[in-house]
Fold:
Amino acid sequence: MQTSPPPTAQQLAAFSSFAQTLADRVRPLSRQWFRHPLSVDTKADESPVTQADREVEAALREAIASQYPDHGIFGEEFGASHAEAEWVWSLDPIDGTRAFISGNPLWGTLLALLHRGRPVLGLIDIPMLAERWLGAAGSPARLNGEPCRVSACTGLQHATLYATSPDIFEGADMAAFEALTRSVRMRRYGGDCYSYGLLASGHVDLVVEAGLQPYDYLALMPVIEGAGGVITDWSGQPLGLESQGRVIAAATPQLHREAMRVLGAATT
Structure:
């Protein structure tokens, strides 16, 4: 397997600046479609897609190809190109399309930069609220330029738990999730990627989901970790391109372990 030195602080600073430029570029593009009539198509996986999703991703791809022609791209709408490259961008142009088409402003644009398959930079941009979380390896996560931090919650009985929807859980996953929610202080739904931003800022303690794709979670990882939190699959393994889409993000290692214990007990 080809190896290369880890990215330098200078490289990450340059890529972070570029990622924010990308988000600035597509904010007006997605906002102009929000709460305006647009056609909605259904993809093979039965998820919705709109012209806004496609236009935003196309704009992101064009800008990346112009600035970094040797970088690969992995996007929700147009798939992978040069996925074997040392540097690969993961793109989710509108994370929360169901929220977008129903007029809910808690959707976002997700950008991640992977170095040799590992996310070293992540950005969560919420266009309608003008809120942006940025995480880069070795640096504190930031919300609109200011450092942010997870809560100090260590016990499920004190935790606020979010998931995008109960519809994302099926069979044994649903039983495990229901068991977990009986242990927490409060359960709330909605938010898509916004829930992870709230976790990074200390307002939410736990986010648990299933059925996610890599472009749904890769950008979240540097943000959550940079804010002091923990994010893995349900078995505690690092998330990557081959993960099965089950995600636990927690404010503290103790809370993460408790959540894994309940989920594991419910599925065995």
Q: What stands out?
A: The chain has two domains: 9-147, 156-266. Residues 156-266 form a domain with the D-Maltodextrin-Binding Protein; domain 2 fold (CATH 3.40.190.80).
